[in-house]
Design a protein that fits this description.
The protein has 2 domains: 137 residues, Rossmann fold, CATH 3.40.50; 163 residues, Rossmann fold (3-Layer(aba) Sandwich), CATH 3.40.50.2000. It is elongated. Helix content is 37%, strand content 16%. It is built from 12 helices and 12 strands. It is of the alpha/beta class. It has a 6-stranded parallel sheet, sandwiched between helices.
């Protein structure tokens, strides 16, 4: 019989975010080897499981602590998010305790292990996320259609995007569609004001996943201005749709797009973002220091890394305990 696994994720379907997409996909990929139960939390007396896979060191900390106390000899695997890697494990005691409790760690992009203490890197597995490939949809040449996908919260840095929209002129032919719910009401109000003042910027709110992917397919460019990322789901979706990316120069984005990628701008720098957008718009009509075709070619070389078969193989390796005789075989202490 397949062993059982509880996959703890702080975000279920109602959250409509990257954590939920990851959890749902992993449950499907693991189903051939594990009997998987998705849950927001685990506590003694909850569903029986032979192993725990938890997303998010801080937000799943109570579940991790309870599992570690009651089942110290059963596998505990922790998948680290961007807020874990680039904020919480440095300052939050519960996140630090989760790191110490985990038998193995999963990270979602190539730069992430560098943010861990040297002593923990040996138990770290890089699992690049994946999605199905989608064809690139027709795009008009008389404008640059930009899509931005991310709920409105500080970590995604919508403020830089809004500042960039205010610097652009409507006649420049750069149209921005911004998808995401206002998790921070003040940022939602700022997006509403920007949309009223800038006809080339539209805030569309939260959209279903399929509609979001279609807009990525139709866009010339995905802009991703985050301040903090563990491995953005939307970047991978853009690459697998043939849509190039313009992203903030942070480890979470570099770990997905590669160190030699040309489409980076300094985090929080609206002027640099505008300059890059203008260069890409100019590249539609002639020579430009930064061109859509160059970014698209670079993205095409990265896209195969995010194939579902590759993600499934890496995930199964991270959860393979056959070489760990203590785990999955030893009983819990009396």
């Amino acid at each position: 019989m397949r062993p059982s696994l509880v996959l703890v994720t702080p975000a279920l379907a109602d959250a409509n975010n990257g954590n939920w997409q990851t959890a749902r996909r992993w449950a499907r990929m693991l189903a051939s080897r594990w009997r998987v139960t998705l849950a927001k939390a685990w506590h003694p007396g909850a569903v029986h499981a032979d192993a725990l896979l938890a997303l998010h060191a801080r937000r799943s900390a109570d579940s991790i602590a309870a599992w570690s106390l009651h089942h110290p000899n059963r596998p505990l695997v922790l998948a680290l998010t961007g807020t874990d890697l680039y904020r919480d494990i440095a300052v939050d005691a519960s996140a630090q305790a989760s790191l110490r409790a985990a038998h193995r760690l999963i990270v979602l992009q190539d730069q992430a292990p560098l943010s861990l203490p040297q002593s923990l890197r040996g138990q770290c597995h890089v699992v690049l996320q994946s999605c199905t490939a989608r064809r690139t949809l027709p795009k008009a040449a008389d404008r640059l259609r930009v899509v931005v996908v991310g709920h409105l919260r500080e970590e995604k840095d919508p403020a830089t995007l809004l500042a960039a929209a205010a610097l652009l002129r409507p006649e420049e032919g750069i149209l921005i569609d911004h998808i995401g719910a206002a998790l921070d009401p003040a940022l939602g109000e700022a997006a509403t004001r920007t949309a009223a003042q800038c006809p080339h910027y539209r805030w569309l709110g939260a959209l279903p996943h399929d509609r979001t992917r279609e807009r990525i397919q139709r866009a010339h460019l995905l802009v991703h201005p985050s301040r903090m990322e563990g491995g953005a789901h939307v970047i991978m979706e853009a690459l697998r749709s043939g849509t190039p990316v313009l992203a903030s120069d942070i480890d979470g984005n570099v770990g997905m797009l590669g160190e030699g990628y040309l489409g980076y701008f300094p985090v929080g720098d609206a002027d640099a973002l505008v300059a890059a957008l203008r260069a890409l718009r100019h590249s539609q009509g002639g020579p430009s220091p930064l061109s859509l075709s160059h970014l698209q070619a670079q993205c095409a070389t990265r896209a195969p890394l995010f194939d579902p078969a590759s993600e499934r193989a890496a995930l199964l390796r991270a959860l393979d305990f056959t070489a760990s005789p203590l785990l999955l075989s030893a009983g819990d202490p009396p």
